[in-house]
Amino acid sequence: MKKKHIDRLFESLAAVIPEPETELEYSNVFTLLVSVVLSAQATDKGVNAATPGLFALADTPEKMVALGEERVRDKIKTIGLFNAKARNVIKLSRMLIDEHASEVPASREALQTLPGVGRKTASVVMNEAFGEPTIAVDTHVFRVSNRTRLAPAKTADKVEQKLEKIVPARWKKGAHHWLILHGRYTCLARKPKCWECVIADICPFKPKTSDPEAEAAAKAEKKAAGKRSLSPPRPKAGKAAKRVTKPRA
User: Fold this and answer.
1) For the whole model, what pTM was predicted?
2) Which domains, from first to last, does the chain contain?
3) Which of 44, 75, 77, 120 is catalytic?
């Protein structure tokens, strides 16, 4: 994608959402970290449904360790991979207590030593909690980057590398969120909503999809017009013809 189109893309997305942020619900950096760990192979909506009960009991590493793996597991059992995630939450909580004075570290290197924290999770925490211009590539970012040809690549790592190079500095802090939200609500996997997309004119994706409601209305009108054309013509209004009577012989 050309540089002028890259600027246009982010300008358009920023016009819709001036200050993008994560949709995960959290109260401090620790609960943010836990939420992001839980969101792996899960939806933000699903995580948000489970975490209020968990965080009401444990919103610090010490409280989480005291709560214990079994009770953590019970609180997050509606989330995929909850057994492994419960173990990781307890392990990373202990590690934060033992090695980081119960504080979530700000560096990528330290974050990625924590159980359950990979590159993507570290990038999200660094961006959301510490204001770093990192770009985490999830399924939405990957799809939008490829479909728009913003940063086409076959792997998430390659997409991230390209985005890091091509996204202008002024857009980099919010790029991750803009692309995620655009993919989540507009550039859908099965049927993107091209008819309401603010970057449709610079996106090469084809064929563009159209508004299903408008399509349904057009089909209904066409069907109604067809019925009207098949109806027999009505007699023209006017005076009735006079009856002519022949004279008798």
Assistant:
1) 0.84
2) 3-20+135-196 (1.10.1670.10), 29-130 (1.10.340.30)
3) 120
